[in-house]
Specification:
The chain has helices spanning about 100-110, 170-175, 195-200, and strands at about 5, 15-20, 25-30, 35-40, 50, 60-65, 70-75, 80-90, 95-100, 115-120, 130-135, 145-150, 180-185. It is mostly beta strands. Strands 1-2-3-4-5 form a 5-stranded antiparallel β-sheet, with no helix packed on it. The termini are far apart. About 25% of the residues are buried.
């Protein structure tokens, strides 16, 4: 039986999953809050162990079998399509590719697209914010360009993720082809794994911070 719950106070892990065998499996990203990897730690205590391979893309979603020995993982990044495969746990050996989305990757590559980037900026108050930007195909930084700022600004959703299919991506890519730069930033309080203070600072202050 799988018991899933969202992290409560600190927000540093998401999608906690308890499994048989004395292990707790969970998704986390200690170094980059825009990414997700699978970890496990013994219920008796000890050092957490990352199970997602080091070469895996930035965003990994798991459907774990009740016994904890198999999983379906869907992996993607800000610049790559999702690939789904069945893997063994804990070693993560790939058993079979279920969907490589090769056709989608080819169609995407055939489009006339500009560069894209992920970045981090520091506010005047010293708070680091994660963001991404999509540029027109003929972008020249020496010129002035109109910008569409995609803002969500609430504590429910995270718009800046190192994954494929960012929110409204096709619409945003169309805008870049029409000469717009599209940018998004995750404001404070979004459900990124950045700790208790980050997550709860917007209580009673939504729209202010």
């Amino acid at each position: 039986e799988r018991a899933a719950a969202r992290a409560g106070d600190d927000g540093d892990v998401q999608g906690i999953v308890g499994l048989e065998g004395g292990w707790l499996y969970y998704l986390a990203s200690p170094d980059d809050p825009t990414q997700r990897f699978l970890y496990r730690v013994a219920l008796a205590g000890g050092t957490p162990e990352r199970l997602t391979p080091a070469e895996a893309p930035g965003w990994n979603e798991y459907e774990i079998a009740p016994g904890g020995d198999l999983a379906i993982v869907t992996a993607s990044s800000f610049s790559s399509v999702p690939v789904s495969a069945m893997v063994e746990l804990p070693g993560h050996a790939r058993i079979r590719v279920l969907e490589d989305n090769a056709a989608a990757a080819a169609a995407h590559a055939a489009l006339r697209l500009g560069a894209r980037e992920r970045f981090r900026v520091t506010t005047l108050s010293g708070i680091e914010l994660d963001g991404w930007a999509l540029y027109p195909p003929d972008f020249d930084p020496r010129e002035r360009w109109p910008v569409l700022f995609h803002v969500y600004g609430e504590p429910w959703g995270q718009t800046v993720q190192d994954r494929a299919g960012i929110r409204h991506e096709l619409w945003h890519l169309l805008l870049t082809q029409r000469g717009y730069v599209v940018i998004s930033l995750d404001g404070r309080g979004t459900p990124a794994p950045r700790g208790r203070e980050w997550r709860k600072c917007v209580y009673g202050s939504i729209g202010v911070l």
